[in-house]
Amino acid sequence: MRRRAVFKNGDCNILQSRISKRRLRYLQDIFTTLVDSQWRWTLTIFAIGFLGSWLLFALVWWLIVFTHGDLEEDHLPAKQAEANWTPCVFNIQGFTSCFLFSIETQHTIGYGVRTTTEECPEAIFLMCLQSIAGMIIQAFMVGIVFAKMTRPKLRTQTLQFSKNVVICQREGHLCLMFRVGDMRKSHIIGASIRAQLIRSKTTKEGEVLSNFQTELDVNADGCDGNLFFIWPMTIVHRIDENSPFYFLTASDMLNERFEIVVILEGTIESTGQTTQARSSYVASEVLWGHRFESVVSYNKDRQGYEVNYSKFDNTVAIDTPLCSGADLSEFYRIQQISDVDMRFLSPYRLSPSNSFLVQSAPISRVPSLEPLFKKEPSTTNGQKTSLNQNDCKIQIEDSFMEKPYKELKPSKESKSQKECKAQKEEAKRKISAINAVKRQSDILEEKEEEEEQTSVTENLI
């Protein structure tokens, strides 16, 4: 099983290592670094920042009052009136007083005990500088806290993806489907969804691309553009000739190593910010032959549509062909060419291998019991065709059919031998059409094998 590149909760399983000057690069974008960091680290950095600014300005205040002589014994606050001394800052007795004055100035507390005088111009300048620095630090902290609390990433916690993807038939095609829902009343505006297939690929030159990404064509319940995302929606990827799963059967799907990354993007209605929700699915999370159970119903008591999220991940097993999308398309193409009645066809009994189950409708217009073919069976291009004289039965056995044609009983309405011969010719034309398709497919397979052998030989040379 392939290791996930994206976890189910949307986090990327990517480890960055050996980055030159990593710390310097992160410090150059300090705002994004603090927003992306965990809360404990953000609050710790802000606490250290505030404490460091208080201590730094307290030291500068202490140097100013010390050089002015305010800390001399005769110039302390108790003797300033007797000595007729005017200090730079009133009521400063030491470094502790300077530290308290630094806090009061930076946060504009203003207790009124310690104040700046006009004696020292440098003290006035420092007071203005510290006030500006305090406002910048507080604004920076408020901005980061607000950005962390309103991050669009948090909106993804109320966006839900189904645990599994399912594969079933829809409109005659195999389809890979998953479900996404929004649990809030405020909607995602302009929501769009896309899917990426990640798997290894080998180029013609022999280069192995271990994480090759392929865009999957997806739509939501018939919406090709933006989603009208008011209730859980089923996202559908049709497995057609443009799909990377076109040649994979049910058994092949289990053995494949791939990851489907689904991405939902849109604008948050309440904040106007763009959000992105992610999830992923691996091969073990694919349920073949299942479809999602309906979760939306109308509640007459509450007069509104009710979404039952307890059934969000529930699936229902249904009859689904085990063959690949290519085999199923070929089956329907042969059926269309041979003009076989659909009432007797059952593609759900197809095996995972390249085989087809074709069972014809009874040809009721055979009018006569006269033998039309020889009693000995004749062989034409790998098909054995025989006619029973007693019941005018046509039977076709082919190597790529698992079961022969249904018995064809004669009609009681027609009695003309000419009509019976015409019916015989019609059956022959059907057989010829099937042979032509079979021969064409064999030729294409032979050409593909020759091209593969040629490319392998060229690579070895």
UniProtKB/TrEMBL annotation:
Q: Where are the transmembrane segments?
A: 41-64, 123-147
Where does the UniProt annotation locate this protein? Membrane
Q: How does it sit in the membrane?
A: Multi-pass membrane protein
Looking at the Swiss-Prot or TrEMBL record, what is one Pfam family this protein matches? IRK_C
* A molecular function (GO) term: inward rectifier potassium channel activity
Q: Where is the Inward rectifier potassium channel C-terminal domain?
A: 159-330
Spell out the residue ranges making up region: Disordered: 406-427, 439-461
Annotated Potassium channel inwardly rectifying transmembrane domain residues = 6-152
Q: Which GO terms describe its cellular component?
A: monoatomic ion channel complex; plasma membrane
Reaction equation(s) it catalyzes? K(+)(in) = K(+)(out)
Instruction: For this entry, list what GO says about its biological process.
Output: potassium ion import across plasma membrane; regulation of monoatomic ion transmembrane transport
Keyword line: Ion channel, Ion transport, Membrane, Potassium, Potassium transport, Transmembrane, Transmembrane helix, Transport, Voltage-gated channel
Q: What InterPro entries is this protein classified in?
A: Ig_E-set, IRK_C, K_chnl_inward-rec_Kir, K_chnl_inward-rec_Kir_cyto, Kir_TM
Family according to the record: Belongs to the inward rectifier-type potassium channel (TC 1.A.2.1) family.
Q: What protein name is recorded for this chain?
A: G protein-activated inward rectifier potassium channel 3-like isoform X6
